[in-house]
Amino acid sequence: MNFLKNIKNISLSLILAGTMMSFISIDTHTDPPVKLPAGTSILLTSVQRLSSDSLVFGQIVDFKVIADVKVGDKTVIPAGAIAKGEVSLLEHAGFVGKPGQIQIRIKSVEDVNGKKIPLMAPLIIRKGDDLKALSIILGILISLFFLLLMGMKAVVARATVVEAKVEKDTDIE
Fold first, then answer.
1. 159: helix, coil or strand?
2. What is the pLDDT of residues 80-121, one digit of tens each?
3. Which end of the chain has fewer CB atoms surrounding its CB within 10 Å, N or C?
């Protein structure tokens, strides 16, 4: 008899739980993704001073987004988001006045969900002062020691502003 009573209680509990669940609304609606169009402009700034004497070829360097990027009223890339660039050419300053040179290629930025969005931008190219002529002339006229004169290093100043563009149409969730 107890067994039948327990089954009856369990059945009533399940019916009551099912009835209550029908009153609970679970919102499974999600906003559709928005499309960030190719060519959308994004202003970036370098977060640190970059110098040809401290960088390594292939090194990844950080930039920050200056202002929110929006599609309609939805922010898809917030101000302060990190963009990545890569040192694609590096020459250290050398003897006989050879200048240093840096070339940085902007690669990507993260959207509000952390997804990488490919970017395109003009190369950031900096070249130090070329002191070859001075080094050679002073080396010939005064002393060969002037041939040891080093060229100037290349520098990308902190807070250098770069305009990048979204490379291809991208869906943002």
1. coil
2. 999 999 999 999 988 888 889 999 999 999 999 999 999 999
3. N
Backbone phi, psi, residue 83, to 5°: -110, 150
Distance (Å, whole) CA 103 – CA 170: 27
Backbone angles phi, psi at 77, to 5 degrees: -135, 110
Q: How far apart are CA 66 and CA 78, in angstroms?
A: 9
Pairing of strands 50-51, 155-156: antiparallel
d(CA 168, CA 40): 9
The DSSP element (H or E) to which 20 belongs, if any, is helix 2-23
Q: Is pLDDT larger for residue 4 or for residue 153?
A: 153
Whole-angstrom distance, CA of residue 47 vs CA of residue 59: 15
The band of 145, judged by pLDDT with boundaries at 50, 70 and 90, is: confident
User: Kindly report the CA angle at 90 between 86 and 91, in degrees rounded to 5?
Assistant: 170
Yes or no: say if 153 and 51 are a contact pair by the CB < 8 Å rule.
yes
Residue 4 structure tokens: 């039948």
Please state, as a whole number, how many other Cβ atoms lie within 10 Å of the Cβ of residue 118.
14
Tokens of 165: 């563009």
